[in-house]
Every structure is written in C-alpha cells, then in structure tokens.
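Marked as duplicate of an earlier ticket. Keeping the data here for the record.
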Amino acid sequence: MHVTLAWAGGAEGFGLSGPAGRAGRGRLLGLRQAAGRTSAAAARALILLVLVVVFALPLASALLTSLKTRAELYALPAALLPKAPRWENYLAAWTMVRFGRFLLNSLAISLFYTLPCVMGSCLAGYAFSRFRVREGRALFLVVLSTLMVPPMVTVVPLYLLISRYGIVDRRWLWLLFGLQGTPFLIFLFRQYFATVPGSFEESARLEGAGRFRIFFCIMLPLVQTAVIIAAIFAFQWSWSDYLMPILFLRADKLTLAVKLARGYVDARQQVLLNVSMAGVLYYTAPILILFFALQRRFVTGLLSGGLKG
C-alpha cells in the first residue's frame, strides 16, 4: 500500500495521505463529534440538575420546617435539620382546621369549576377553529386580549353583581364561573382542533351526522390530550384560588386555601410555622399526584399543541 507523509496544514502538522490518511482523519473527526455530543449532554444534564434543585428547594424547605419544633425554628444559629423529627405536626395540621371537611369543600369547588370550564373552553375553541365567519378572527383577538386584563379589575363589579342577585355563599357559583371558559384554554383547544383534518367532519356529514354528534363523537376524542391538559390547569387554578372563596363563601363552605392562610395559630394568634408547613404539604399533595400521574401526556400535549396549527 502506497503511503506518504504530507503537510496537513494548521495545527495538524504532518499526517498520512492516501487511504490510510483519510481513514485516520475520519476516525479523528468521529471522535471529535462524539466528544462534542458528550459535552453537550453533560451540559444539559447539569442545567436540568440545577433546575431540579431550584424547583425542589421550596418543598424540601417546607418538609424540614414541618418536622421542627418552634424553638428550633427561631434558634440562632439556625439548624438545617431537626434534632428529632416532629411527625405529630402533621397530626396537628389535620385536626386544627378540620382538614378533612375543608378538603371536601375544595374538591367540590374545584370539580364544579373544572368540568364546565373545560367543556366551555373546548366548545369555544372548536367554534373559533371550524366556523369560518368574517368576524371570527376579530372576536378571537378580543378573547385573547382579555388575558391582559388584571383579574383584580373585575372583582368589585363581579361582587356587586352577585350580591345584588343574592347568590353569595353558593357553591354552584363556580359552575357559572367555569361555563365562560378561559382565554388560555380556548386558545389551546383552537390550536388542537386546527390540527385535525377537515375530512373527518366531511365524512361524518355525508353519513348524516349533525354538528353536535360530530363534536362529541369524533372531534372531542381526537383532542383528549388537550382535555387532560385543560383539566389539570383548571383544577389547579380553582384549587389554589384564595380570593374568590373568601369573597363569596362563608364559614363551613370555605376552602383549604382560606383555612390554611389563617387557621394555624396559637392562643395568642401567633402563626405556627411548623404546623403550617405540614398543612401546606398536605395541600400540595393532590396537585403533585395529579401532575405526575399525567406528566407524559401533559408535556407532550403542550408541545404538540404549541407547535402545530
């Protein structure tokens, strides 16, 4: 085999020419590319690890605080870990505010809001995606523009309207709140319906199906991922809402968000931080369970809904 030495130029110096030289350069290039991919993967892993630590830090802090005594909370210098875990704080968090009673209230309010909110947003998104009218685009922009209106602007007019009709302290108010849908979910459903080929509806019409049958039997099952995403968002919004329950509900109809904010105090009205953190972890658990149970469909659904249409 004929092999000669030749100047490769640059920092390479002398290298082999001919078939052996080309093979060597190919292997060197492959090694460099593999090293580059490894470095990029390591950088991504490091960034993800930092993000995990940042997002997990509040939960870890709440867990450690919930296991401390009041003396340990205010001790100087502060101790990171409790000397002896105080698991009885979790029992106190459950009993001090009748946690089970207000947990049922929160679940009822969240379901009253989530179901009509998802259905109302789905119907509106379907209409904006499929009904071709001259004013459709302008109306859709008006709906999206309401995202820029701060919720606090509408609180006083809404309270005056509801109190005038005498329907304060009614759980079914959240059915009315949900029926109007939300601009974000309407946009989400519109994007999903825009990815569904119109030939599905045309075939159904040829078979004699009406508009509502097409929607419920064909279109709705095709966007079930969007339904799950919307349900998670709507449930979380209602579950964590503090302002609406404290405005429109009274006494035993209040939700956990309200009771946790002002229920964990001692006889001198001083906040019990360790018991409060135990209650916060109880309160956070349903949302975490819901998210992790549907995590794969949630993330992939958001990506597909945002990239198509």
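See parent ticket for discussion. The first helix runs from residue 18 to 66.
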